[in-house]
Amino acid sequence: QVQFVESGGGWVQPGGSLRLSCVASGLPVSNYHMGWFRQAPGKEREFVGATSRSRASVYSDSVKDRFTISRENTKNTIYLQMNSLKPEDTAVYSCAATTSVAFRSGEPSLYYYWGQGTQVSVSS
Fold this sequence. Notes:
Helix content is 0%, strand content 48%. It is mostly beta strands.
């Protein structure tokens, strides 16, 4: 059974940092392109970024230069380092996996497996 467990969310003031983790079980993340998505209340799910099997990353314009995705395949874990956080970054963040070559598009329907998410709240 495939399972992703996200952790590391919480409350932080604007300008602060958080690092989210996504620990996978039931599949080797090394075989998958891994994405991070977020969803704020009342809004559509939004693509944050993704890392390919070869560790090449792509980011949405809203987080580029502030967020960094990395992977540690030996721990079957994906990370999302978030710096210079803004109130508009407040959302539930989820990781997801796919083998689709179109993973960079950020289209959620291309991702097969999803975690439940972790809440990130940015406010003063």
